Amino acid sequence: MVTPFGPRNILLTYLMLSVSLGILWANLSKNIESSHVNKLNKLVKGMIICCSLFYVSLYAINAFENNRRIKLIKQADESNQSVVEIRRLPFSFLGQQLDNIPMGNRQDEYKEYYDISKNIEIKIVNRTMPLPWKQTNN
User: Fold this and answer.
1) Neighbour tally for 12: CB within 10 Å
2) Own/partner pairs for 20-29, CB < 8 Å, 24+ apart?
């Protein structure tokens, strides 16, 4: 089964584009020797590394918050609550239906993957602050 949480959007395409352009640039710059090209080479490599780290950090923040949500759901399940409220992910546009966990097949897959009881209802609420470390789930 494929994880319901994952990078399934256009930013992953840009990450792969950055990596492939970096590989092309590295092979192209070997053939040209000049002080200007060397400076440009360092600038391009730095930009590619910065863009790649930026994309990866967005996914890491979402993964951190998703793990927190799963922990909250499992705690509610252990305490026999029937409804649990969780916050939206800070960058939910980075994947397919990360926050819209509709009733039916998608929610069943989500619960099965994370080993959550089928009897618990997941209710998603809006965030009051954008980043996970600025606010707790309580």
Assistant:
1) 15
2) 21/48, 22/48
pTM exceeds 0.85, yes or no: no
How many Å apart are CA 39 and CA 36, to the nearest integer? 5
End-to-end CA distance of the chain: 31
Residues 6+ apart with CB under 8 A from 37: 29
Distance CA 17, CA 22 (A): 8
Any idea which residue has 């989500």 for tokens? 110
What does the pLDDT look like over 97-136, one tens digit per residue? 667 666 666 777 778 888 888 888 888 888 776 555 555 5
